[in-house]
Design brief:
Blueprint (H helix, E strand, L loop, with lengths): L1 H18 L3 H14 L5 H7 L5 H12 L3 H13 L3 H23 L5 H24 L5 H14 L3 H4 L2 H27 L1
Helix pairs in contact: 1-2, 2-4, 3-4, 5-7, 6-7, 6-8, 7-8, 8-10
């Protein structure tokens, strides 16, 4: 019965996000859907991220950032890629902090099945985050490039990349090219 009740609440929140004339109610609905992190609401949150009201759109982005990327899939990755520079920087920064928060749990042996499942979910989340940050190394905004490189330097330390030496090497090469390109750009500015 509790599951049915939750489903009804989520359905009402999706309806409020899509149809309420009040920006305040749409923003609150987006926040609540982010707390539930139910796959059912991803489509509504993606649509809400394009809301005319900037605060509603920002709350939809926030709610989507709470979903594991493996659950939200490529739709969210595409939406994140089209985000403005401020949102990209914030997401890359949050991914780095998230890696640092969970890095210690990777070194411990999991004591329960729940911990093991969490590690698998985090592995998938961080792998997609690393792929997105790799793409952002070529962003037009220098701060997005810098924050993405900073996040990638932590993302490649986690477990799914420890055994994937080819991926780690590719990311390391991209980071070296990134630093070289940024250094060249600074030199050109200094010369002019």
């Amino acid at each position: 019965l509790a599951g049915v009740r939750d489903w009804i609440v989520k359905d009402r929140l999706v309806i409020k996000l899509k149809t309420s004339p009040s920006a305040k109610i749409r923003r609150q609905a987006a926040w609540a859907l982010g707390e539930f992190t139910d796959q059912f609401s991803i489509g509504a949150l993606i649509d809400g991220a394009k809301d005319d009201d900037a605060e509603v759109a920002k709350m939809c982005y926030y709610a989507l950032s709470r979903f594991p990327l493996d659950m939200a899939g490529r739709k969210v990755a595409v939406l994140l890629d089209s985000a403005d520079a401020t949102r990209k920087k914030r997401l890359a920064h949050n991914w780095k902090l998230s890696v640092e928060k969970h890095l210690s749990s990777y070194s411990k042996k999991s004591k329960s099945e729940k911990d093991a499942k969490k590690k698998v979910r985090l592995d998938a989340h961080f792998k997609i985050a690393a792929e997105i940050c790799q793409g952002w190394l070529h962003d037009s905004d220098p701060k997005v490039r810098e924050t993405s490189a900073w996040a990638l330097s932590s993302l490649i330390k986690i477990r799914p990349f420890q055994s994937d030496s080819e991926f780690r090497l590719a990311v390391a090469n991209q980071l070296v090219r990134f630093v070289k390109n940024e250094t060249d750009a600074i030199k050109k500015l200094a010369i002019n």
